[in-house]
Amino acid sequence: MTTKHNEAISDAGELRTKTVSWHNPHATAAAGHERSGLEFLTAWMRGETAGAPICELINARLIAVDIGDVVFACEPDESVYNPIGMVHGGLACTLLDSAAGCAVHSTLPIGLGYSSIEIKVNFLRPIHAGKGEIFARGRVTKPGKRIAFAEAEIQDSSGTVLATASSSCLIVPV
């Protein structure tokens, strides 16, 4: 059975909406091809270039960048809830994948990019909206010419670990 999302459902309360805006991802990628990964990510963090549209969708922003190490902040809202009243694991997985992948990206010279080829996620604690920002930190554990490895974790503002991941990324010419 399906429901029409534009109609009120009697036991669900008032229908809510969310507006998302983003820049042309093809123009962003083209601009990124002219910079090293670290240069691109630093420009994104400073607001000098557009970043990934997925970050606009999930309300995440890049807040720290160094070689092999990045941090994203995200304040989940209830639009990313699953049907049992907590943040969907897909949001955590997306943040972890972004943090691990961007950590790898920060090590790459001009002309190289990456593609996630595997990620393993451990969900340790539930995430709820309205509890403040969460932080996803990614760090490279083994750089490589063809494959790089990274780890990531999500913490709440008190430092409690909510989820962890290990990832491998294929290094590709762009």
From TrEMBL:
Annotated InterPro entries: ACOT13, HotDog_dom_sf, PAAI_dom, Thioestr_dom
GO MF term list: fatty acyl-CoA hydrolase activity
Classification via Pfam families: 4HBT
Record-linked CDD domains: PaaI_thioesterase
Top-level taxon of origin: Bacteria
Key words of the record: Hydrolase
UniProt keyword annotation of Hydrolase present: yes
Keyword flag Endoplasmic reticulum: no
Domain spans labelled Thioesterase: 85-162
Family: Belongs to the thioesterase PaaI family.
PANTHER family xref list: ACYL-COENZYME A THIOESTERASE 13 (PTHR21660:SF1), THIOESTERASE SUPERFAMILY MEMBER-RELATED (PTHR21660)
Protein name: Aromatic compound degradation protein PaaI
